[in-house]
Write a structure and sequence with these properties.
Largest sheet: 5 strands, mixed
Structural class: alpha+beta
Order of helices and strands: EEHEEEH
Radius of gyration: 13 Å
Number of strands: 5
Strand content: 25-35%
Strand order of the largest sheet: 2-1-5-3-4
CATH superfamily: Beta-grasp domain
Distance between the termini: 16 Å
Number of domains: 1
Number of helices: 2
CATH architecture: Roll
CATH class: Alpha Beta
Shape: globular
């Protein structure tokens, strides 16, 4: 199973979610699935999504979710990082992604 943690207006996917609660979903793990595939299964469009993390590592649409029981954090577009994520995108922060 994948644990999906949703932030911002994406919390609407979780029934009876409140702004003060952590909003999580669990979906079945699919081998070799990308984040983009996972978003499609959740019914989310790329233009609704800001930053995404696999197991606390900044991730992109094309990144593969490499293992079962991963945690996927998805932030809404309206919650993007102040600098648009430029610092963590280009400072080498992506080392050991999804491991």
């Amino acid at each position: 199973m994948l644990q999906i943690i949703l932030y911002g207006n994406l919390k609407k996917l979780v029934t009876h979610s409140q702004s003060t609660q952590i909003s999580t979903l669990e979906i079945q793990y699919k081998e070799n699935e990308t984040l983009e595939g996972c978003l499609a299964r959740l019914g989310l469009r790329n233009d609704e999504v800001g930053e995404m993390f696999i197991n606390h590592c900044l991730s992109y649409y094309t990144d593969v979710i490499t293992r079962d029981n991963s945690r996927i954090a998805i932030f809404s577009k309206i919650m993007q990082l102040i600098d648009g994520g430029l610092y963590i995108r280009y400072c080498g922060y992506r080392s050991n992604i999804a491991n």
